[in-house]
Amino acid sequence: MVKELAFVLINPYTIAKSRTGGIIARYISRTGLDLVAARMFAPNEELAKAYAQLIRADLEVDDHIRPLLADYVEREYGPDPATGARRRVMMLLFEGENAIQRVKEVTGRIRPTNSGETVRDTYGDYILDASGAVHYLEPAVFIGPTLTAAGEALKLWAKYSLECGGLVGTAGDVVQDETAEQALVILKPDNFRFASARPGLIIDIFSRSGLRIVGAKIHRMTIAEAEEFYGPVRHVLREKLKNNVAERSAKAIGAELGMVLPETAKGQLGELLGPLYGDNQFYQIVQFMTGRWGEGLADEEKQKPGTMPCLLLVYAGPNAIARIRGILGPTDPSKALPGSVRREFGQNIMVNAAHASDSIENAKREMGITKVDEETIQSWVTAYYP
Length: 386
Fold this sequence. Notes:
- The chain is of the alpha+beta class.
- The chain folds into two domains: 3-220 and 309-384, Nucleoside diphosphate kinase-like domain (Alpha-Beta Plaits), CATH 3.30.70; 226-302, no CATH class.
- The protein is 46% helix and 17% strand.
- The protein has 18 helices and ten strands.
- The chain has a four-stranded antiparallel sheet, sandwiched between helices.
- A hairpin with a 5-residue loop joins strand 4 and strand 5 (134-138).
- The radius of gyration is 24 Å and the shape is elongated.
- The two termini are 20 Å apart.
């Protein structure tokens, strides 16, 4: 069966209520599709009206629902008419066989229900009054229910991706006072080895920070990026592991040759082997993040995208760095508090679920290396809808 490209737009209200993680968990775990791209948008009035018009023209949508959805988009996706402030929308792209139908089934219909079978059953509302008229509508998400509808919508959003997408830190519900910071979070590749709810569940834990997601990107880190990103760690490993290597080497020599090394010889072993062992550990980190062994590769090879995806998220708000780090937990998951990301999902010091910037300076450095605001939607849309 031929692969398809499907999309999900997470509505401004849904994002503001921090339901993003639960929705992402549903789509990844229940569709089994690959999450191949993510981007934050702050739609302008032109994009909101154009998307509303597409919905009005989609005859596949029920006649009584179609105008309600179009009016909703025009009202809730566009800038606040009173203040002009833009609203946050998250776009997710999923790839796989029968992707359009799978996403449609997980999304569900707009209907009055108390069940939790679908995304809209759980996170949306469709409330009728006593006369049967619509009293309140919140669809939670928007999708392309058919191949044609998905294609038209994707081409529209791709057209506005540079103008309205990227880092949306100036959206109306994002605090922008003197305490505001931006923190980069990376959901590491171990969360994407197979389709599961883990990425969404981790986002749910971070939601208790009260911060706003202002950037999102699916990224395959190159070896060159990983070397630069973790460069400060390399020097630490080369120095920190000298004593450990000296002791372990001395024990190994003693067991093999039946001799006890003097302290001076141990020190020499540490000085000789410590940096080599540190480099080995460093490139194990690089391999974990990229899926490729990088030591000794030519520069051209190091520039190629890795084989392992990760999800980049930028959180914004007061004291974002400290708040995110507190929820993440220490590097060693065994030392993390219950309820923290690393205690819940980490395995060891390297396979510890997520990374978070430890300072404002490092957040800027890391976001620059990973190009978190880079446009990635257009290439996917062009590949499927040239």
